[in-house]
Description:
It is a single chain. Helix content is 19%, strand content 17%. It is an alpha/beta fold.
Amino acid sequence: MKALEWESRTPDPDALTGRILHREQPDPSRRPDLLDLVAQAAAVGVDVDDPTELGAFHLETLGALSSATQLRDTGGAPVGRHWAQAPPHATMATDRVVVAAPKPGGGYRPVSQERPPWSAPGGPSAYTVWAGGDRDHLLMNLPGGFRARVPYEEVAELLARDPVLNTRPADGTDIVLAVSKTAPSTGPSTGPSTGLTPAPDPRTVVSAGTGRAVWASQGSVALAGTGPSRPYVPTLLPTAPGRPVAADWSAVRPGDPTAPGTRVPTGGTGVDDVTFADRHGTDAPPAALAGLFDPGPVGGLDTPLPSLDGLLDGFDTSLPDHQDDGVDGTGRRSRPRRKPVP
């Protein structure tokens, strides 16, 4: 009954099959699936007239918040969601970020390890969201082979409903978007003007939807493997060689009056080809960079994440508790102390 009522008051239900069911384009043949989803959503109190809530509920029915997408620390405690192409029940190191740099002739190598700017020794872990994507969309991979672009408004709605995250205090557990280049550059734009309204800042969107501080990086980010039965480790390719981790990461906090707005873009189709890096000033051709640390474009080739096995000789050594003399609210730190990687 609820689904039929929704159908009768919705001007063009077929037009919503693409957006809510996360298909490349509307598909009138999927209207029965959409109505079935509406009925399920209404039964659990979802606002079926809100496309964002309904789209997030669709992802939830596909397992977005299931135990199979939980990202756990080395002790087995859940510390985030992995919506990337990763083995089930993946684990991650929470006490460090590896800094990578291009290698002559192509590829990347780890050069240092630093403490994450969002955590303090002995403090609570942040909640990490690991996925492909960019500032326009998150590329979500779910159990059963589902793969699609998801707007950050739906990501925020999902995280607001996340039963694991909701057990953590909002003022003590930040969210980390381990998605490449989701924070806007602080420098002047050097590229040509497209005439399009900039996409909303994902940090602002997710922070507003969850009531939590949200971190993201200007650089390329991934979780890289460190060997069989060993945890993944957050890895950053900075926007400039030698740039410390905290200089590339920044946070937006709830109610921050200086946070970038959440205006909806007026046009454009987003970025289709997502790579680990497309930085200027490297010798490697763009083709050599595609997909190295990222799930890649929807429908594209599935390139395995590179392994850091054998490259992090100091990985089992604890980092010093005092990494620097302070990290301010923007994530910038003074006098960073790095642990070199042999």
